[in-house]
Amino acid sequence: MSQSTATTGSPAGLNWMMFPFTGAEVQGWFERTGMMPKVMEYARRARKGATEFDVVFETGSVKLRRYRGEGPQRFATPLLCVFALVNRPYVLDLLPHKSVIRRFLERGFDVYLVDWGEPTPADHDRTLHDYIEGHLHCIVEHLLDSCGVEQVSLLGYCMGGTMSAMYTSLHQDLVRSFILMAAPIDWSDRSALLAVWTDSKYFDVDNLVDSLGNIPPEFLGSSFKLLRPVDNFINKWLGFYDRMVDEKFLEEFFAMETWSNDDIPIAGEVYRDFVKYGLQQNLLIQGRFPLGPERIDLRNITCPVLNLVADADHLVPCGQSLPVNQYISSKDYEVMRVTAGHIGLAVGSKAHKELWPRACDWLAARSEAIDPQG
Amino acid sequence: MSQTSGTQPPFNAPPFDPASMQALWQQMMGQFARATSPEGAPPAGIPAEMFRQMQKAYLDAMGRWADQYMRSPEFLANMKHSLENALALRRQVEEFLRKASEQSFGSTLGVYDAVGAVRDAEAWITRRIDEIAARLDAIESKLGVERHARRGRGAGKDAGVKRASKKSRTKKQAVKKKAARRRR
């Protein structure tokens, strides 16, 4: 007995053949079972966003949030964050230590976030033009009026970055500086699986939109998860089992899970425009992307541009966002890269340690400072 | 209830405290864990780190294989057909349900549909009017800016922006006040 226990580490008195687990494994199992009530508690109390905000403006179903900073405001130029239409925007403010919004608040910026809301079936014919020239433009006009400034700074994440680039190209005079965050601009890079799946040879976007109207969240959510099936369906849960005894991990895990499962539908016409003219025909870099009566010409962008890129982004590979400087006219252009994934750029520890302090400095140097003397 | 309340002393149940239950549960499981793991027990046949590395290599390979497969023409063709079939089925089901309800409810269904459609349309039109009004405001203020910039001599364009937007604001306030007076 003593020999078999010594070599296998099984609990005393149990035969290895009958009980093929080490003592450490059994100990770990009991520890994890003991954590179950805590796990459920963290799952239940996961919050959607970490920072207090006020809704300061509404246009249709779109809301403008103004975040409350604790310190003094140091810059007059407001920062407007624009997230994609496919998920909720609170990923930019997931947890206090993983909040892009907080990093900017701490630096003294007046931070706003566009909450696009959830399109209803009646909104299926809303186009990108409605969102950009309608809602986003109204919001910017409101900000200029309420803050008493002439220009705002824009931060666009993912599809929100593409939309912000379109907006900036149409209203360059209203944008002081522009931060792109993992934003697809040039779809000639077909390395991402999403680009392969949406190839016009295999994907009939017209049929999908004509049949469904709005694209349901289940379709979008499962498509995104299927891009990395092993990571999303196996590795994530193995990692969870390994680290579920750590309460800080549980907090982060459930905050992330809550966000990633909090999908919303996307208006059918927006989806059609984006897939057809962007992913399939790559019209944005050719100056031919139709937006209502206009054609988007990125050369109109002349303001300072900061391009934040995640090296391990599987959704928007670097090749889709890095070439932006070839199509804009800005003289002041900078790239900051971090080893992270698409979402890690916003919530990753490395990004918050290395990237965001530098991004805040970049914006601070290009924003109108408030004179402390009044 | 009234029978027992008079004869038995009231039972004062302590309020349920989830935190203490959690602590008790964790303590119990912690004791089990310590009991099953004698200090310094060596690991089993394969060292844990090696097992982890093997597992990682296997899952990485599986991930690469899945990625390659999902890029293959076979998968893409299957995906296309599945999506087309699912959409065709959905259209057929919708058509069937429409016909079935037409037959069941006859002409009244049309009335319900019409009422529902009118309500939807009403909500949609109201929202669109709001949106158009907001856009009109934006256009008006922009026009005001341009007019002012054209008029302004020597003054910078940016200065014009600020003044014109203030002007349009006061105009809007005057219109609002008038409307409020009329309502009164």
Give a summary of the structure in a few sentences.
The complex is a heterodimer of chains A (374) and B (184). Chain A has 374 residues and is an alpha/beta fold. Chain A contains 14 helices and ten strands.
Largest sheet of chain A: 8 strands, mixed
Chain-averaged pLDDT of chain A: 91
Q: Estimate the helix proportion of chain B, in percent.
A: over 70%
Quaternary state of this entry equals heterodimer
Report low-confidence residues of chain B grouped into runs of 5 or more. Answer: 1-11, 153-166
Distance between the termini of chain B: 61 Å
Question: Rg of chain A from C-alpha positions?
Answer: 23 Å
User: Biggest interface and its residues per chain?
Assistant: A-B, 62 and 57 residues
Q: Would you report the number of β strands of chain B?
A: 0
Rg from alpha-carbon coordinates of chain B: 37 Å
Net shape of chain B: extended
Proportion of residues in β-strands of chain B: under 5%
The helix/strand series of chain A, from N terminus to C terminus, equals HHEEEHEHEHEHHHHHHEEEHEHH
Please work out how many helical segments of chain A DSSP would assign: 14
Largest sheet of chain B: none
Shape of chain A: globular
Q: Would you identify the regions of chain A where 5 or more consecutive residues have pLDDT less than 50?
A: 1-10
Secondary-structure content class of chain A = alpha/beta
Strand order of the largest sheet of chain A: 1-2-4-3-5-6-9-10
Query: What class, by secondary structure content of chain B?
Result: mainly alpha
